[in-house]
User: Fold this.
Amino acid sequence: MLPFKKLSAQENQALLKFPAYISMLAAQLDDKLDDTEKKSAIKFSHTKTFSCNPLLTEFYEEADKVFKKNIEQLDDDLPKDKELREVVIKNELMILEKMVLKLGKDYSLEMHRSMKSFKQHVSKAHHNVLVDFIFPLSIPGLNEN
Assistant:
């Protein structure tokens, strides 16, 4: 199924990787995608299918079908060097950004909000409730990403 009639089939397939690339970027904070981040991202992808803005429902329903495969493939295919990996991810995100812009202002704004929440969720996959209890204030690097 092609969620976006304004995009080619190839662009649709690429856009469905958007959440996976965002997850990979979030995982870069600690050098790699580990099992905790991967599980968190997969679960969040599924949750998004029914918790997102209705404007994005069709996108997330399709993205969720291929999310696990996409994130595993990206993790295998992306360069292992941290700096190079980050450059490649950011370049791909710029390409995806151009595709999203073709879908209109409202859609683009909502997609940005959603991808930001995706990145924050994966970034906090290792979040520890005990740290919040001991340090209730935000301390960069400890309980704030």
